[in-house]
Design goal:
Blueprint: H1 3-17, H2 29-42, H3 47-55, H4 58-61, H5 79-89, H6 94-101, H7 103-113, H8 115-120, H9 123-131, H10 138-144, H11 150-162, H12 173-186
Organism: Larkinella bovis
Protein name: Phosphonate degradation HD-domain oxygenase
């Protein structure tokens, strides 16, 4: 797929669903993803990591009419895998895909490893955690730690948790869409 077409499809998803509420949180889908990208950028993350932070919840925006595809009112089941696969098909790297595909596993990992993390989760994050399998087991955590993108995945998860602020001035979506386009053109 050519970069222009991929960006057009992403833009269309944001136009259709970006203003939707971010499940149980005080921000929209787009505000959440922009805040995640902004946090990644401020932390000095590389382009692929900023892109992953920006698009980490794109799976929630993909069309679906089937009730079984949803976690009640908390978004798409397996949105992380759906989004990662959808982005792979559009030319994004395995690093971008892995950071997105495992950001839910990072929540499961952190709730296993750190009970204080569990206690800080918002009500919506706790509800989705139940749908997502709950905290990892020791064996799952050990396997997850072997992922070559483990540290980056945890970073994306951290930004995901923080990206729920209201009345925050954010850069325009076009800034991150342009980053995605330049990135795809270089690949």
């Amino acid at each position: 797929m050519i970069p222009r077409q991929a960006i057009a499809e992403i833009t269309e998803l944001f136009e259709k669903h970006g203003s939707d509420d971010y499940y149980g949180e005080p921000v929209s889908q787009l505000e959440h993803m922009l805040q995640s990208a902004m946090l990644a950028e401020r932390a000095g993350a590389d382009d692929e990591t900023v892109i992953a932070a920006f698009l980490h919840d794109i799976g929630h925006l993909l069309p679906s009419e089937a009730a079984e595809d949803h976690m009640d009112e908390y978004g798409r089941v397996d949105h992380e895998k759906l989004g990662a696969d959808w982005l792979r098909e559009r030319g994004f790297s395995e690093k971008v895909a892995q950071l997105i595909e495992h950001h839910v596993n990072a929540k499961r990992y952190l709730t296993y490893k750190n009970p204080a993390y569990f206690n800080k989760l918002s009500e919506a994050s706790l509800k989705t955690l139940a749908f997502q399998g709950g905290p990892m087991t020791a064996a799952e955590a050990q396997e997850f730690e072997q992922n070559p993108f483990f540290r980056g995945i945890l970073q994306v998860r951290g930004w995901d948790e923080l990206a729920k602020e209201t009345d925050l001035e954010m850069p325009p979506v076009d800034q991150y869409l342009a980053l995605c386009k330049r990135y795809l053109e270089r690949r």
